[in-house]
Amino acid sequence: YFIRILENQKITLPLQACLFISKDNFNQNVHNLIISEPNSEAQIITGCTVHPNVQSGLHVGISEFYVKKNAKLTFTMIHNWAQNFNVRPRTAALLDDGATFVNNYVCMKPVKSLQMYPVAYCRGANSRIRFNTILHGSQNSHLDAGSKVVLQGKGSKGEIITRAIASDNAQINARGLLVGE
């Protein structure tokens, strides 16, 4: 999908997108592009899920975010997959002067594997990024998650926060990298 929040627009209700898989052993490949024009504000909530009869498959989701001067964007991705599902979200963000981007990722159901490492470039002065990740790995899930922030603009800030619980035989690798340039 493509979402563009126009300049100076303050969207008060969250925008919502849903990706659904109804066929077993299906490979879903999506590319999302979100642009927050200068001085705009919005919240986007996405839900990715499968039909109850789906047992396995692959989801590859590429998401690009462009948060322009003094724009504020909150993006929340909630995944609800199946036990034998492989998930590969790929996310990159570019922030201009005074831009604020909050990226929330939630995965509370068992999956076969999750691999993600979103990256944000705070190229603008006083830009801010915050990655919040909430994971519950259960059964035989293998969750490989992390985030990277590259601070390029003067006064830019970044936070990487992960909360994870592993139960049963689940494995969770969580890492973060903050690079100051």
Q: What does the model show?
A:
The protein has 181 residues and is mainly beta. 0% of the residues lie in helices and 67% in strands. The protein has strands at 2-5, 15-21, 26-36, 41-50, 56-67, 72-80, 84-95, 100-107, 113-116, 119-122, 128-137, 142-151, 157-166, 171-180.
List keywords for this structure.
8-stranded parallel β-sheet; mainly beta; globular; single chain; 67% strand; 14 strands; 6-stranded parallel β-sheet; 181 residues
Stretches with pLDDT under 50, minimum 5 residues: none
Compute the CA-based radius of gyration. Answer: 16 Å
Q: What is the count of helical runs?
A: 0
| Overall pLDDT | 96
What string, H for helix and E for strand, traces the elements in order? EEEEEEEEEEEEEE
Measured between the Cα atoms of the first and last residue, the distance is: 32 Å
**Percent of residues in helical segments?**
under 10%
How much of the residues is beta strand, in percent? over 45%
In total, the number of strands is 14
Shape: globular
Secondary structure class reads mainly beta
The profile of the biggest β sheet is: 8 strands, parallel
Short structural summary:
The protein is mainly β and 181 residues long. Helix content is 0%, strand content 67%.
Give the helices and strands, then pairings.
Layout: E1 2-5, E2 15-21, E3 26-36, E4 41-50, E5 56-67, E6 72-80, E7 84-95, E8 100-107, E9 113-116, E10 119-122, E11 128-137, E12 142-151, E13 157-166, E14 171-180
Parallel strand pairs: 1-3, 2-4, 3-5, 4-6, 5-7, 6-8, 7-9, 7-10, 8-11, 9-12, 10-12, 11-13, 12-14
